[in-house]
Structure formats: C-alpha cells, structure tokens
C-alpha cells in the first residue's frame, strides 16, 4: 500500500518541488551551472524525471509509514486505557477523546521526523538535480565538510510539518468521522452517541480527503521554506541559512508578499485529497476487520 502510494505521489511531488524552488536563493555560479544541467536533463526525459527521487523513498516508505501508524495507534490506545481502564480493546477506535488523537499523532510525527528528515533531504535534492540516489547521498555527505549534519538541513520546518501535519491530519479525520456517526445516530436511533452506528466507506473517504487537504493547507508555508532550504543546500559553496533567515528572504524577494510560500500549492492540494482518501480508510478497516 505505502509503496503504491509513493509511486503515485512522486510525479506530483517532483512538480511541487520544482515550483517551490523555482526562485534560487543561492546565486553562485556553481549552483547555476548545476541547475542548468538539471533543466537540460529534465527537458530530454521529462516523464522519467518526474520519478527522480523515488528509489530511496520507495524502499523506506513502507517502514516509515508502518512505524508512524504503529506508534500513533499504540499511543492512542494507551491514552484511552489510562482514561477508561475497563473499556474494551477496540473501544478507543471510535470513543477516545480527540485530545488523545491529537497527542498521539503529534508525538508519533515528532519521533518519525528524525528518520524522515534525511530521506526528504535526499529526495528533494534528487528532484532538483536529477541525480541518482547514490550520487545524491555521497554529495550531501561531502558538501561543505559538514557530514551527517547535511542530512538534517531544514529540520526545524520539517519537525513542524511532521508534528502539526500529522496532528491536523488524524484529528480532523476522526472529528469528521464522528460527526457523520452522530448525525446518523440522531436521525435513525435518536441517540447521537450510539455505538451501533458505523461510517460508510464513501464517508470515510470524504473525511480522509478533507483531512489531507486541511493538513497540507496548514503546513504548506513551512514546507515551502523546508524545500527552499534543501535547494539552498544543493550548492557546495556558501553558508547555510537558517529557516527564519530564508523565510524573510523569500518574503522580501516576493515583493513583501506571501506568494512565494504558496508556490505549488494547487498541485499539492490536488494530490493530498485523493491520497488521504485511500490511505486512512484502509488503515481504519484494517483495525476493524
């Protein structure tokens, strides 16, 4: 499931990365030459270039998704058991507090961000430079003599995206699902909190699509800063800018406008809804089956 999701995601992610990094933040000649070479490569094999950066994530995305969902579910289950020690094992799926959902998803996102940050750095650099996975890893490690720290460039915005993004993603999904359940319970049984009411698959898909779109809408400006930091780090020359410095530069370069923070927003939102509409219902049904 996760591998298929990655294959579907990669072309639009490549387009979004290209859009969000369109305005170079590093005007040195070495980077300009590299970007010109990348552009020439993309123009000669455009379809293939949309899948640049897929090799690493394709291998690891299943493990990362599994880790995130497992931690989220374990934390959520534990928090519900603390609140209701006598409840059944599956009671948390529909009856735990939304605050528990928010805490569990945020903590799970924070922990997995440590592992996903290097993957994001490598993937984005591949998409910008159109390099192989191996060359990208080697170049990232050697750049500026900073070694492993290069794999955590932009970790501040990345941490924000993983914590807030996951928090909004899961909490919105659960909240909208329960809204459907309460509506149906009230109209059919006259009891808004009835446990005998379930959510249909189309309703789950709608709730998931809303949560995916809302999640990306909330984190997109930070994701733009993160992507621009990765693009800035492509150059092996020059000092790395902090996320705050880069955000200020993006604002100034955009004519004191927030438009640079939303470049590629349409592509991302168009992808977020359908992807979430597939992933979250499958997660739900796996536990309920």
From TrEMBL:
**Chain positions of Solcar repeats:** 96-179, 199-289
For the region Disordered, give the residue spans.
1-20
Q: Which Gene3D superfamilies match?
A: Mitochondrial carrier domain
Keywords assigned: Membrane, Mitochondrion, Repeat, Transmembrane, Transmembrane helix, Transport
Q: Which domain of life is it from?
A: Eukaryota
Location in the cell:
Mitochondrion membrane
- Transcription keyword on record: no
GO CC terms of this entry: mitochondrial membrane
Q: Does the keyword Coiled coil apply?
A: no
Q: Which GO terms describe its molecular function?
A: transmembrane transporter activity
Q: How does it sit in the membrane?
A: Multi-pass membrane protein
For this protein, the record's InterPro entries field holds: MCP_dom_sf, MCP_transmembrane, Mitochondrial_Carrier
Query: Record's family?
Result: Belongs to the mitochondrial carrier (TC 2.A.29) family.
Could you identify this protein by its name? Answer: Mitochondrial carrier protein
Higher taxonomy: Eukaryota, Sar, Stramenopiles, Ochrophyta, Bacillariophyta
